[in-house]
Design goal:
It contains four helices and two strands. By secondary structure, it is mainly α. The chain has one domain. Strands 1-2 form a two-stranded antiparallel ribbon.
Length: about 120
Amino acid sequence: MTERQKLEKQLDDLVSNIVRIRDRNCITCNKPMIYETSTAGHFMKRDNRCVRWSIVNVNGQCWDCNREDDTDRYEQAMLRRYGEETTNRIKTLAKLPCHYSISDLRQIIYELREIKKQMT
């Protein structure tokens, strides 16, 4: 595994951990969840590099909703939780090409670790 792949794996795991701690209800169906049964669901899919590790783009989802992959329903939930401006910003960012350097990835890890520290 390359250094980039290791850092991206760390980021995926860190974002998943943060949103699964943060979110007690599924963003799309609002059913209560516990950490062990929740997933980190992406509004704009993981291949959209500019928002892959955004803790606004990634939210706690139950297994059923994440598996359904219902973008329209997720968007309605995003609008309720974050509002139109933020939801549209995520959609715009998802369309942009992003090429993170190793240094960029390390910085994102640092910032997310700081967020996680504040949560615990």
